Amino acid sequence: MTVVQLHGKSTGRGPVSDRRSIVAALDIGSSKISCLIGETLPAKHKMPGASEQKSLKILGLGHQVSRGVRNGSVVDVDEAERAIRLSVDAAERMAQQTISEVYVNVSGGRPQSTRYIGQIVLEGNGVSPRDVDTVIASAVAQIHPSRRTVLHLAPIQYQLDDVKGISAPLGMHGENLSIELGVVSADTAHLRNLALAIERAHLSVTGYVIAPYAAGKSVMAEDETVLGSTLIEMGGATTSIGIFHEGSLVFADNVPVGGMHVTNDIARGMSTSIAHAERMKTLWGSALPTSADERELLSVPLLGERGVDTVQKVPRAMLTGIIRPRIDEIFELVADRLNTCSVAHLGGQRVVLSGGASQLTGVAEVAGLWLDRQVRLGMPKPVSGMPDAGRNPGFSVAVGLLSYGLKPDKHSVLPAQAAKSLARAQQGYVRRVGRWIADSF
Questions:
Q1: Which of helix, strand or coil describes residue 67?
Q2: What Cα–Cα distance (Å) separates residue 15 from each residue in 19, 373, 402?
Q3: What is the per-residue pLDDT across 200-235, written as a single tens digit (0 to 9) for each?
């Protein structure tokens, strides 16, 4: 898988840690903005002939309430810059390190997955590496980025004559070789606005990683990504979908509904503040009713009221009745996207949930009813030095970004000529962004 990177200019923040050992991640979400700073450590024990396996140690964690971001997109650059600065500053103080580059998630920008088919006629005995490069180049030649930027590319399957589902065609025999190439792209304008807010915080972007792929790096077992699984990242204002197969992301999409919508529904339905609605959702919220819900009463402070009548008592069943329809809506939308996806079958019967909204009681059960698949709640893999505050699904994307920084995808599916062709197609955009950033600061 290849990640197309948009690099920013260098910064002047003073002494900076060794780039080879320090990795930083910035998760720009609609409910919170998180920054993680980690250090790469060499493996304690290395097997003879094996590639070096590095480990990760968390040095600093900072997070702030998100401002200037809506549905994963920047809507107020000044507010977003301020929240990014506060988050990064908290992480730098904890880590006692100064960072200048970050890996950034992409949760908005209307992600789009497209399939491109390349086909060639084989000559000679067996499929050679040159044949594979040629068929990939024929698929890449069909990509026209226009106003969208390619983030990820991955082969879905190869086909030899009438035989489909081939993952490694080298050495096999046939007359015609074709490839189905999955391409995930996002709006160029969305990435440009992200770059603006980040550059104004005196940081540059090492690479962009789409949110479901980052979350998958954090919460999914290796066998799940190989055998085929679907990841659902439930954020504050968006719910992202990713389908993994043969270790690669082959499909990505999102729906514009998340945990903040549940909170707002509670605030409106019970006439209380958003802060108290969030507290009620966290402490007592559930998507599944119980027999005791009618008897258990909750105290709800009324919005704007003063005096002795500022608190009302409501049964817990009322809270569940508000939460369940919104959770049903989220998974109904997800099910619709999967039903119209041509590669949904590659995700198998396994679904992994991540993100802060996935922690709500009963969400996994509701997901299983709508998706008719086995569902489990994913937790970020244990990382040395991670504070207790970061050991929950709400930091799945941030931890996944660090994992990607520790071990970026090196098995590029693009041969040299195809990579150059795609780079030239997007070169005009990169130059425009560079000139625009230079003129802005």
A1: coil
A2: 12, 51, 22
A3: 999 999 989 999 999 999 999 999 999 999 999 999
Can you list the positions of beta strands (E) in 357-403? Answer: 374-377
Strand, helix or coil for residue 267: helix
- Find, among 244, 262, 248, 263, the residue nearest to 331 by Cα: 262
Return the CATH fold of 112-186: Dna Ligase; domain 1 (3.30.1490)
Distance between CA 84 and CA 197 in Å, rounded? Answer: 8
From 438, 440, 416, 397, select the one nearest 35 (Cα to Cα): 397
User: What residue type is 202 in one-letter code?
Assistant: H
Architecture of domain 260-318: 2-Layer Sandwich (3.30)
Cα 411 from Cα 168, distance rounded (Å): 13
Average pLDDT over residues 155-182: 89
3-state secondary structure of 229: strand
**Residues 38/387, Cβ–Cβ less than 8 Å:** no
Q: Where are the alpha helices (DSSP H) in 3-65?
A: none
User: For residue 23, what are its two tokens?
Assistant: 């990795």
Residue with tokens 């780079």: 423
Structure tokens belonging to residue 317: 């069943």
Go through the chain and tell me how many residues it has. Answer: 441
Helix (H) or strand (E) holding 61: strand 55-65
Q: What is the pLDDT of residues 86-97, one digit of tens each?
A: 999 999 999 999
Q: Are 174 and 163 in contact (CB under 8 A)?
A: yes
Spatial distance between the Cα atoms of 131 and 411, rounded to a whole number of angstroms: 17
In this predicted model, what pLDDT tens digit does every residue of 267-295 receive, in sequence order? 999 999 999 999 999 999 999 999 999 99
Please, are residues 404 and 240 in contact by the beta-carbon 8 Å criterion?
A: no
**CB count in 10 Å sphere of residue 317:** 17
Domains 1-110+187-220+380-441 and 260-318 share a fold: yes
- C-alpha 3 chain-centroid distance: 13
52 half-sphere exposure, CB direction, 13 A CA radius: 8
Rounded to 5°, angle at Cα 380 from 377 and 384: 150
CA angle 82-237-370, nearest 5°?
160
Domain residue limits, the chain: 1-110+187-220+380-441, 112-186, 260-318
DSSP label of 391: -
CA atoms within a 13 Å half-sphere pointing along the CA-CB vector of 113: 27
> DSSP 3-state assignment of 317?
helix
Whole-prediction pTM: 0.84
Exposure on the CB side of residue 183, measured as CA atoms within 13 A: 23
CATH class of 1-110+187-220+380-441: alpha beta
Phi, psi for 207 (deg, rounded to 5): -175, 155
